[in-house]
Amino acid sequence: MKTRSSSSNSLLIYKIMILILLWGNFSSCQNNCAKKIELIDQLLSKLNSEQQFNGGFMIGNKDSILFAKVYGYANIETKQPLDITNSFGIASVNKSLTATLIMRMVELEYFTTESKLVEFFPELPYKEITIDHLLTHTSGIPFYYDNLVKKYWNMSNKMTNEDLFKLYEQYTPKQEFPAGEKFSYSNAGYMFLAGIAERASKKTYDTLLKELIFEPSGMKETRRLVHIKDESNLAKAHALSVEKSSYVPLDSHEDYQKYLDFYFRNRKGAGGLNSTLEDLWKFSRALQTEEIIKNETFEKMLTPGQLKTGKRHMYAKGWQLEPKNGKKIIGHRGGSEGENCFFRIALDDDYTYFLISNTKTPYLSIINNQIKNILQGEPVEKVKISGVERLSLLFAKNDFQYVSAKAREMRLQKNDYYFTLSEFNAVSWNYWLKEDFENALNFLKLATIAMPYNAGTWEVLAEAYMELGKNEQAIKHYKITINKLNSDPTKKGKKWVNEWIVEINDKIKMMQKD
User: Is 52 among the domain residues?
Assistant: First the structure.
């Protein structure tokens, strides 16, 4: 007779205790609260059954977790089901933890928010950038991928923050704008914040998080992915594989070597953390109960960023601000190649929720909006199916005629499906980068079938033909674009449309000369 190991028994007992705790809190929730949670559960269960959601959801107040549940698979390939204790990659929600760490270190007088970046990185030329600029995304620090990684780094080699810092010091790319003049979301800025924390304290970023954030909050399951050796409890991140016509774990994806997770898994500050539903509730509670920073410091964190002009923007220090009916709501969105998530704290209404999908689908923003509507007592809209996603899942394993017929069928089912040109372009671009021009063109042709009255679909196809030197086909589709514009009563005669047509005619004339 086989017996469980002591660690397996402990895990089982832990899960049972969590379920009892959750059920007790759900049962004691006021009727209105319980009804809203029930509606959210029904929404996510339905979306999971329709393959629009695979992930987890947690909601709680300062006292307890009210509800937490997972839907779908931790590994879609192996059909390993998700578990309430699974560890998820939280992507840019990491920035809220990094900002909290920095503000705690301000309290401990390691530096101030006005301390300069060059005090810790003297080789850099960005003399006016302060910690506050980095926290509020107003530093103007150059984008690391286009300016450095793409040009100077062999992505078959693993990268660390220190490797990236050396690239900045060696090549000193020009600032995007003077510090404080604009808001521009910056992953690099938060990587430098992690570097400042390390250089000021002479401790590692991981040690600082553990000592100043995790231990005071009681967060026992949060750590950087690079330090997770046993991946059996991971909710694997998934991306859509057009080659396999399915969602697959990132490390099984045909493009994995180009993904951040492959070459820059060991990043700090901007992303790279994994956490659990319970740990993120603990972080929210600790923020609001002075377990990690003082209330005064927390309030300073939530002051909207300010530009030199005096204009405020809706990003504070590590938090996106979302005032609603005069009430204070903060949060952060996270997204990577294989997952999306939303972390939201309604400070005045005393609830926190975390929504995550460990598959990179086009739905999570729409789902998040419906959850907000439920919690705010507003009407809930149907989450339509992305026709582009479903065509992508058919494309590699079926002939073009079959997929075209499906596109026409979905087009007629307007209450169930939606199409966007941006989604068509994204899939086509993946083929284009591989120089698989036939499939790139065919996917753009599907756009003209699914969205025949959209002039943009015909123009994009014309552009693709022109890039390939197929001028006859390009001219044909440019002329169709003009006809679509002229036959649309909502566009005909408008100045911007006339300018668009002039631009297209100039391209036709240029090709006719060739």
Answer: no
Residue with tokens 């909710």: 235
pLDDT at site 31: 60
Domain final residue, candidates 317, 340, 375: 375
Residue 344: closest CA among 89, 163, 93: 93
- Going by C-alpha positions, the residue among 476, 472, 480 that lies closest to residue 451 is 480
Provide the pLDDT for residue 27.
45
The total number of structural domains that make up the chain: 2
Q: Is 414 exposed, middle or buried (0-12, 13-18, 19+ CB in 10 A)?
A: exposed
Structure pTM? 0.90
Identify the domain containing residue 312 by its residue range. Answer: 91-375
Question: Does residue 340 sit within a domain?
Answer: yes
Residues 403 and 387: beta-carbon distance below 8 Å: no
3-class DSSP assignment, residue 514: coil
Does the residue 84 lie in any domain? no
Q: What is the pLDDT of residue 2?
A: 33
- Name the residue among 38, 86, 155 with its Cα closest to residue 339: 86
One domain, residues 175 and 267: yes
Residue 169 belongs to a domain with what CATH number?
3.40.710.10
Mean pLDDT by 10 residues, the chain (514 residues): 40 49 50 90 98 98 96 97 97 98 98 98 97 98 95 95 98 97 97 98 98 98 93 95 92 92 95 97 97 97 94 95 89 95 96 97 97 94 97 94 97 97 95 94 98 96 96 96 93 91 95 86
Distance CA 400, CA 463 (A): 21
Q: What is the DSSP string of 88-125?
A: EE-GGGHHHHHHHHHHHHHHTTS--TT-BGGGT-TT-S
Q: Are residues 345 and 439 in the same domain?
A: no
Structural tokens at position 59: 């909601």
How far apart CA 315 and CA 307 sit, in angstroms, is: 11
Q: State the pLDDT at residue 28.
A: 46
Distance separating alpha carbons of residues 40 and 342, to the nearest angstrom: 15
pLDDT score, position 514: 73
CATH code (residue 468): 1.25.40.10
Does 454 map to a domain?
yes
- Per the rule left: phi > 0, alpha: psi between -120 and 50, beta: everything else, 137 is left
Residue corresponding to tokens 């329709």? 50
CA–centroid distance for 302 within its chain: 21
Q: What is the distance between the alpha carbons of residues 99 and 392, in angstroms, rounded to a whole number? A: 38
Domain end marker among 355, 375, 395: 375
Task: Please state, in angstroms and as integers, the Cα–Cα distance from residue 102 to each residue in 48, 199, 208, 462, 487, following that order.
Answer: 38, 12, 10, 50, 57
- Residue 395 and residue 365 in one domain: no
Partner residues linked to 249 by β-bridges? 238
CB 481 within 8 A of CB 462: yes
Q: Which of 218, 351, 346 lies closest to 291 in space, CA to CA? A: 218
pLDDT score, position 325? 82
